[in-house]
Amino acid sequence: MSRVLAIARNTLRELARERVVLVLALFGLALVLGSQALSPLALGEGRKVVIDFGLAASMLLATLLAVFLGSSLLHKELERRTIYAVLSKPIRREEFLLGKFVGLWVTTGLLLAGMTLILLAVVTLSYRETPWSILGAAALSLVELGIVTALVILFSAFTTPLLASLFSCGLFLAGHLSRDLRALGAQSDQALVRDTSAALYRVLPDLQGFDLGIQAVHGLPIAASDVWLPLVYGAGYTGLLLLGAVAIFERRDFR
Q1: Would you say residue 139 lies in a domain?
Q2: Which of 87, 111, 153, 179 is most buried when burial is the number of CB atoms within 10 A of its CB?
Q3: Count: domains in the chain
Q4: pLDDT tens-digit readout, 59-96
C-alpha cells in the first residue's frame, strides 16, 4: 500500500505541473459573470439556473481533465523510459497502475471540490442562501469521476493517448444515455432489440444514477438510498475496470 501511495504522490506532483489550477480561476470567473448575466433573464429562477449550470460545468471540466491528463500518463512514462527505472525497483505493475489511478483521481477530485466550493460561495453570496444539497450532488459526482478515471487508466494501459481519450469520452456519453437506451429498447416489438438494449445497459456504466442535480437545484431532500446505492455500484464498477486494467498491463510488453 505504501508503494501505491508513493506512486500516487508522484503522479499528483506531476499533474500539478500542468497548471490545471488555472481551470479553477476560469471556472470561478465564468460562474460569477454567468450568475450575474443569467439572473435577470431567468424570470426569478436565477438561483436554480446558476446551480444547474455550475454542477454540470464542474463535472464536465473535471471529466475532461481526467480524460486528457490521464490518457497520456502511461504514454509519457514509456516515452521518457522512466517506467523501466520504476519497475526495476521492488514495485509490482499493479501497484504502479493503481498508484497512477489514485493520483489522477485525487487530482481531479480536488479540482472538482474546489469548483464546488466556488459554486457554493457564489450562490450563497448572490442569493443569501446556502444550498447544502450541492455537497451531496458533488459527492456522487466524485464517485462518477472515479469510474471515468478507471476507464481512462484501462484504455491507456493498451492503446494510444488519442484512442484512450476517444474511447473514454464515448463511454462517458454512453453511460449517461444507457437508461434511455434501455427504455427505448423495451418499447420495441423485436425481442432481439429488447435483449440487446438490456444487455448493453448491464455492460455500460450507469452514470445517470450519480446525478443529483435535480435535488440540488430544487432543494429537495436526498434519500439515503439515492446515495449508498450509487456508492456501492460505483465502487464495484471501478474495481472491475481496475482489475481489467491490471490484467492487461501485466501482459504488456514494454520492449
Answers
A1: yes
A2: 153
A3: 1
A4: 888 888 888 888 888 777 777 777 767 667 777 878 88
